[in-house]
Each structure stands twice: as structure tokens, then as C-alpha cells.
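queue> pop job 88
queue> type: inverse folding (structure -> sequence)
queue> payload:
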């Protein structure tokens, strides 16, 4: 994959459908069972058809577009994300159920950085005022992606997905959300993988270890603090640099 296509991933929105957690779990399970993406597509068509008004796949309707997104996250991932995807599938096969949602969250964010952009703004708003409104998130995202009506619609899809994943809760005020479930992630291997996710979801590809672990894009999770030594020993795809007494920098190993 060229650097130009990688850069395009950061500027594109991509997500134009609701991404239900249950659908993503099914996709990963089919991949883990050894099925090729074309087989997974057929299996998903059978599994999800009842969830859509029109299951016709002869035209690219909602079902087909949804399956394309699901497969891009766990099947047909961009070339540079294959090692991250493979490690994510390995984590799913080993971790207890309570930790698996974080892996799906991370892989969705890596493939679709827009998911992480929405999560970042939601996380900041929740920390600042305890609630996040769709209009506030849309306004902030338009500053990043441009004044397009597309941005507003796509933000709504992602927020609805967050509610489906139970990391956000709808309040009595329409379009306003409060914090949903918060999961502590005490597994250091998973935490190191999430650090790599964070780096691959942003174009700069580096950051301080503290900022990465405490990033608002991980608002549904509590990542353990870890040393650069621990991080370096766990993930060969990350490089760590001592930068002052309290500012250890992590970057992607290329």
C-alpha cells in the first residue's frame, strides 16, 4: 500500500452505515473459522438478511454496503494493517468475552479513522460536561473534515453504533448522550495493541505513551499505565524513545 493511499484513509469518512457489534463479532468468528472473505460475505448475507428491509444483493443496497464495511474491518483489511488485524484475531481467540469489545473497537478505528475522530470528540465532551450532543460532535468534526452535510450524517451513524455497543446511552434530550459502559483493560498485551491502534488511526504515527493510553478516543475503556520497557517487550511493531524524564515517545516501527 502506498503512502498516498494510507494518507487518503485518514482524510476519508468511509462509514456510511450503522455498525452493529453483533455483526462485527459474527464477521470475526467466520474469519477465525478459516473462511475466505468471499465465503464470509455469503455467510453474512444469510445471517443479516432479516435485519434489512431489502435483502436483495443484486444491487448495492444497505445489506451489501454493510457487509463491505464489516469485511474491510476483519477480512479485506488494508495491506499495512494486516499484522495488526492478525494480532487482533489472535486476541479475540484468547481473551475472555469481557475484553473482546475493545478489540472490535480498535480494529474499526484503525481501518476507519473517522470512528476514532468521533470517539475523540465524544470522549472530550463527556470528560468536560458529562454529556455529548450530536450537534457538538458534528460541529467539531466539520472543522476537521470540512463543512459537508455528509459529515453530519456519518457522525449520526457512528453515534448510533456507539449506542448499539452500549458505550453511549441516549438521554431524555434528543440527540444528547451520556457515558455508557466503561471496561478496565488490565491485559498488557491488549493495551499494547490498543496503543498501536491509536498510532495507526492518526497520520502522525507517534505520541507520548501517557497521551496514547489516556486518549479520549478510548473513552469506553481504562487502559493500564505501562512503562516503555513493557511496551517494547510486548510489541515488536512499536519503537520507544526516551524523551526527557516524563515524556516517553512511542512510534510505529517501519
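queue> result:
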Amino acid at each position: 500500500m502506498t503512502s498516498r493511499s494510507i494518507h487518503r484513509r485518514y482524510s476519508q469518512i468511509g462509514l456510511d452505515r450503522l455498525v452493529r457489534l453483533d455483526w462485527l463479532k459474527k464477521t470475526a468468528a467466520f474469519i477465525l473459522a478459516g473462511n475466505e472473505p468471499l465465503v464470509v460475505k455469503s455467510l453474512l448475507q444469510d445471517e443479516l438478511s432479516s435485519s434489512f428491509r431489502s435483502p436483495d444483493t443484486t444491487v448495492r443496497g444497505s445489506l451489501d454496503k454493510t457487509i463491505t464495511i464489516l469485511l474491510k474491518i476483519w477480512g479485506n483489511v488494508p495491506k499495512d494493517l494486516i499484522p495488526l488485524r492478525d494480532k487482533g484475531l489472535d486476541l479475540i481467540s484468547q481473551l475472555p468475552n469481557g475484553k473482546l469489545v475493545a478489540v472490535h473497537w480498535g480494529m474499526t478505528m484503525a481501518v476507519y479513522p473517522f470512528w476514532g475522530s468521533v470517539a475523540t470528540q465524544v470522549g472530550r465532551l463527556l470528560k468536560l460536561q458529562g454529556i455529548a450532543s450530536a450537534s457538538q460532535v458534528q460541529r467539531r468534526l466539520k472543522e476537521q473534515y470540512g463543512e459537508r452535510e455528509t459529515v453530519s450524517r456519518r457522525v449520526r451513524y457512528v453515534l448510533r453504533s456507539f449506542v448499539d455497543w452500549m458505550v453511549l446511552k441516549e438521554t431524555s434530550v434528543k440527540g444528547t448522550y451520556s457515558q455508557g459502559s466503561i471496561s478496565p483493560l488490565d491485559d498488557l498485551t491488549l493495551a499494547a495493541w490498543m496503543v498501536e491502534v491509536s498510532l495507526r488511526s492518526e497520520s502522525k504515527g507517534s505520541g507520548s505513551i501517557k497521551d496514547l493510553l489516556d486518549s479520549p478516543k478510548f473513552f469506553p475503556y481504562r487502559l493500564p499505565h505501562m512503562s516503555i520497557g513493557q511496551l517494547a517487550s510486548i510489541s515488536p511493531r512499536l519503537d520507544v524513545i526516551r524523551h526527557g524524564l516524563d515524556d516517553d515517545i512511542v512510534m510505529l516501527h517501519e
